[in-house]
Every structure is written in C-alpha cells, then in structure tokens.
Amino acid sequence: MLFFVALADIPKEIFESAQIDGANYWVVMWRIGFPLIMDFFGVALVLNFVWTLTGSAQYVLLLTKGGPGTSSLTLSYYLYDKAFVTSRIGYSQAIGVLLFFAGMIGMLLIRRATQRSYLG
To answer: Could you count the other beta carbons within 10 Å of the beta carbon of residue 34?
Structure first.
C-alpha cells in the first residue's frame, strides 16, 4: 500500500509519455517508476531492517522464550534475557553496543544501495 501511494505521487504525464514512446508496463515500472521512488524504498527498507533487528525479541519472548534449547534465540532477545532475567547488565550493554553497530552498518549499506545518482 505504501508503494502504491509513492507511485501515485509521481505525475501521470511521465508514465503517459513513456507509453507513447512505446514502453510496455514492466519497462515503465522498472525503468521509470522504481527509480523515482528509490529514496522512499530506501527509507522503508531501513525501517524494516531496524524493526527486524530489534523487534524480534517480543515474538521470541511471547512464543518460545528462546527454546527449545537456544534454537529460536535472537540477539535482541538475548539482550533482554541478560539484562532483565539474569541481571548481567554489563553483558547486556555489550550486546546493545553490538546491536547498535550492526544497525549502523546495515543502515549505511542500505543507504548506499538505494542512493540515487543525479549525474548522467
């Protein structure tokens, strides 16, 4: 739905002129529509990445608590477990720093991949 709204924000004349020039639907979407919403795609991808990186703890906590054994343990749930269950605050802070750097690296990579070039 969000991508539909982003595509609806593009002026219709751009799509019409491409169709007049002979471009089919897929060419219009991949060569014109998608590059025009690349910045929006990058923001949506970063938000989804951060949610996946940090938001998985709630599902693991509610459903399995990391079990059976440690088969469904995620880094964000491991941080919660060390901070609030076993009271190892220093260890949980180290995990938090690791999550922070993993998030920053992931966001920089996503931004680099979705950055538009305005030169030729």
So the answer is: 14
- The DSSP output letter for 69 is T
Q: From start to end of the chain, where are the E strands? A: none
CA 109 and chain centroid, separation: 11
What is the Cα–Cα distance from 11 to 32, expressed in whole angstroms? 11
As given in the structure block, the two tokens for residue 60 are 């693991």
Structure tokens at 71: 């088969």
| pLDDT tens figures, 30-81 | 999 999 999 999 999 999 999 999 888 888 888 998 888 888 888 999 999 9
CA angle 41, 43, 45 (to 5 degrees): 65
Please report the sign of the dihedral spanned by the C-alpha atoms of residue 63, residue 68, residue 70, residue 71: negative
Which tokens is 77 given? 């749930």
